[in-house]
């Protein structure tokens, strides 16, 4: 994929099946920002391809690059991605709308407060906000007309339907308001989205498993339940002190921050790389006694400063995956919701939490694993399948993987 922001020559390594073919881009100067003095890239764009690194920051200032502009340029340079970038127009609008409903939800006049009074298919309390955000995102995506199947993956909505749109090529999986149990306390929440390619138009019951599915449903589900390695894009929106949107199209991670004064997401972090080393872990420690022995031992070492790095770690846990992963990406750390003796597969859903967030983490240079296998390589067997997850800084997550391997 080509990026041409500023007079950008982005020659990016394509390391996974998710990514699109990398090509060099010529200088287009489509966004007029100041060039740094002569660089290797300017002299010889191809020279950069050897380093296999995006060259965003070195070549130009990215101040004022909006998400819209970013996607326009991606589409212009990669016409085959035009439909995908259209979906991001819908996600942009939906995240702005969801920012507003989340922000206003605690006002006494708000109708979004409180529980819906219903319990969803997984026995969880459903909030009005879950339903509202689900509708916002579903409608925004549907009206792009780009989805073959729009798989509503929310954990907290009973609105788990499959929406069929005619003749288009993508399927979107999402959790519209992850961490919604926190929202009444003003704690960060987020939206998680994964986009796969999909060739069929079909109707399926998301709850059908194995023999319960008709042949057609089984075929359609098989097309929909794809491993994370098939993701063509993933994104999250974080509703916190600022609203952030982080995206990947299989070519690095780009973070945008909502500037409410102009109503635009503006590029704030280009080509995010999670620090390889860290001293933060982020897990629900109330479950410590029930974790597997290898994980317990590693975390114990981190607490005591006797782990591989010799550093004494500190703990940060919001209980809202998007917030915890966002901090992990920026500061380094290990976020996890591991399996335990009570819930062997932990709590997070593979299809619409684990896989998209793993795609983002890997694209930022981190690792995401169950402890024993790469989350991205697991094919979901059913829509709401759970999966143990540890993700974050390469060296610290590797310490956990080594401990499991030595078990
Ligand atoms: P809710 O959406 O029900 O608030 O759950 C949030 C979540 O799925 C994920 O965002 C958190 O990391 C995790 O659950 C927190 O779970 P615990 O409350 O068990 O720590």
TrEMBL record:
GO terms for biological process: fructose 1,6-bisphosphate metabolic process; fructose 6-phosphate metabolic process; fructose metabolic process; gluconeogenesis; sucrose biosynthetic process. Keywords: Carbohydrate metabolism, Hydrolase, Magnesium, Metal-binding, Signal. The keyword Hydrolase applies. InterPro entries: FBPase_C_dom, FBPase_class-1, FBPase_N, FBPtase, Fructose_bisphosphatase_AS. Its cofactor is Mg(2+). One of its GO terms (cellular component) is cytosol. Residues 66-269 form the Fructose-1-6-bisphosphatase class I N-terminal domain. One of its GO terms (molecular function) is metal ion binding. Coiled coil: none annotated. Pathway: Carbohydrate biosynthesis. It catalyses: beta-D-fructose 1,6-bisphosphate + H2O = beta-D-fructose 6-phosphate + phosphate. This is fructose-bisphosphatase. The gene is FBP6.
């Amino acid at each position: 994929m080509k990026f041409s922001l500023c007079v950008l020559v982005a020659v990016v390594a394509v390391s996974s099946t998710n990514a699109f073919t990398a090509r060099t881009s010529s200088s287009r100067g489509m966004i007029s920002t100041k060039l740094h003095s002569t660089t290797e890239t300017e002299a010889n764009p191809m020279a950069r391809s050897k380093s296999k690194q995006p060259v965003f920051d070195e070549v130009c200032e990215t101040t004022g690059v909006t998400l819209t502009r970013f996607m326009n340029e991606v589409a212009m340079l990669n016409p085959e991605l035009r439909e995908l970038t259209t979906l991001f127009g819908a996600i942009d609008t939906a995240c702005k709308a969801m920012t507003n409903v989340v922000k206003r939800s605690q006002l006494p006049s708000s109708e979004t407060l409180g529980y819906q009074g219903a319990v969803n298919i997984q026995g969880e309390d459903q909030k009005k906000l879950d339903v509202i955000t689900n509708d916002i995102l579903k409608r925004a995506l549907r009206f792009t007309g780009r989805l073959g199947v729009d798989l509503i993956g929310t954990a907290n909505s009973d609105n788990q339907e499959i929406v069929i749109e005619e003749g288009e090529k993508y399927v979107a999986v999402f959790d519209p308001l992850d961490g919604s149990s926190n929202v009444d306390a003003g704690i960060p929440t987020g939206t998680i989205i994964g986009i796969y390619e999909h060739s069929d138009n079909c109707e399926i019951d998301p709850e059908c498993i194995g023999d319960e599915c008709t042949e057609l449903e089984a075929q359609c589900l098989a097309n929909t339940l794809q491993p994370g390695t098939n993701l063509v894009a993933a994104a999250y929106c974080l509703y916190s002190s600022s609203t952030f949107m982080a995206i990947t199209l299989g070519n690095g991670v780009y973070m945008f921050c909502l500037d409410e004064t102009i109503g635009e997401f503006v590029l704030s972090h280009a080509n995010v790389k999670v620090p390889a080393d860290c001293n933060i872990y982020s897990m629900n420690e109330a479950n410590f006694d029930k974790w597997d022995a290898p994980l317990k031992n590693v975390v114990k070492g981190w607490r005591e400063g006797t782990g591989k790095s010799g550093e004494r770690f500190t703990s940060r846990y919001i209980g809202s995956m998007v917030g915890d992963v966002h901090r992990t990406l920026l500061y380094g750390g290990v976020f996890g919701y591991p399996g335990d003796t009570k819930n062997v597969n932990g709590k997070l859903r593979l299809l619409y939490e684990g896989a998209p967030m793993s795609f983002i983490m890997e694209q930022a240079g981190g690792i995401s694993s169950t402890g024993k296998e790469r989350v991205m390589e697991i094919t979901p067997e059913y829509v709401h399948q759970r999966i143990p997850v540890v993700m974050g800084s390469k060296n610290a997550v590797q310490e956990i993987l080594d401990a499991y391997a030595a078990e």
